[in-house]
Amino acid sequence: MGEASPAAARPPKEKRNRRPGAVTAIDFDGQNVRVAHATRNGEQTSLQSVGARAVPPPKPGEKMDPANLGVEIRLLLDQLKIKPGVVVMGMPRTTVALRALSVPPVDKQSELAAMVHFQINKDLPFRADEAVVDFAVQSEIPIAQDASPGPEGSPSPKLAVMGAIVRREAVEFYQKAAESASVGLSALGWLPEANLCGLDFCGAIGENEAMAVVSVRPDEIGIDVVQNGRVLFSRGAVVPLPAPGDASPAAFIEALSIELVRSLHSYGGLNLPPPVCLLVTGSTGLEKAVADAAQSRVNLPSKVLDASALGSFAGDGPAAAGSLSAIGLATGMLAARGFSLDFLNPKRPPVQRNVQRLRWMAAAAVFSLLFFCVVAARSQLIRQRTRVNAQIQAELSAAEKKRPIYKQMRQQVTTVQNWSKDNRDLLEQYAFLSEILPPAQDIYVTSISLGSQKVIRLAVQAQSGEVLAKLDRQLRAAGYDVKPLAVTPGTDKFGYNFRTTFEITTPEKMKIDLAKNQAPARPANDGSLDPVHRGGAR
Description:
538 residues; alpha+beta; Nucleotidyltransferase, domain 5; Gyrase A, domain 2; 5-stranded mixed beta sheet; 12 helices; rod-shaped
């Protein structure tokens, strides 16, 4: 069950987020909520506050409700008077599965993530969408002397990568707890790495020496081997603590010692530097007994973490000693290297794009755009044509009302054109008829019209029948072909008692000489040519 753990190194081209100035770390060990608040001034990290609060256990057979946990977190933050900004929490070792991988080196982190996901997804014990996968580069694997050459004639190097897998529901548990506590969760680290950062902050790790660290917590037992700021090995086990008041924790000590022996045996097969000592951390009160048993079982110098390493917080006793993970989460988040694993913001492979589908979608979008453009242009043209059609219809309606006038005008134009073909002057005809007609005292013309075939129709009103007979003789004498119509008695208000219509035709050979005739004189009382004033008054 032993597995090598990820190193703190990162790929060369990984983007690093800006380091925060203050971090609040929250750790839940199954029985207590622990909070550590740290700040950074330049490269100097200072621990500002550490505290713990017991959490009421859930009912038998039930799991811890993240909403209830969030309430306890909020109460502890208020008790410590902390207004958190950047908040980080940690995943216990028993919830994380590790896989040692060997992959070719690549320049982009997203390509490395794609290879890691591909290898891990092949043997996942649950569905890929239920897993959160992150990874860390440990080191470059040395090339063996007898390695076969690669395509370019030299052995291809490899990267030692450690993949870490957790269930998505475990990540969501911490997210819901943070939401219930009204804090924004910024990162979700890994407790073995947090313990390493905490020990490094306390100055409890020697240089260039491998050290075995046993973390005794109510929810799990963590066994890690660390060296030079790296977690070389990590293994977790659930060993129930003895019941409260049990004066003989021998069963617990024995079970923990067995897990320790198994872990160190697994570590010994990895060809890594052997640990030179063993350090026990925790606040259960059994740490001294665990250290004594470990020294006798694995033959390593063993000791318990001295709480005085926490400085001003050493006086808090068990609360401070049991908050090593919270302290490591806060100080590690402020460190330059940060955390190699973050299950809230895991490294992801590049988004796979279906090029064929994108092309089809682009073509569909272009077609839709063209279709809508055509429809819009068509609608605009239809509106324009509709306006033109309405205008034309209005003009046609107005012209239809004037059709009789147009028809009359066309007939008149045709008549005038027919008269003009034979070089006959209509005005000359009018002037000639004015000369040969009797004076106005005897007769007056009520209408005159031109017809086809060179016909002139005169409607007249006369004083007597003799005047009409005289007019007939005068027209014939002038050369006109006269077709008189019936004479009708008809008295008008002026005393002209006879009316008739003459239809006269002008022969083709008829010659008119206006100089031979003289128009009758106008009566003295003739006012027909006087100007008309407004209102009808003359």
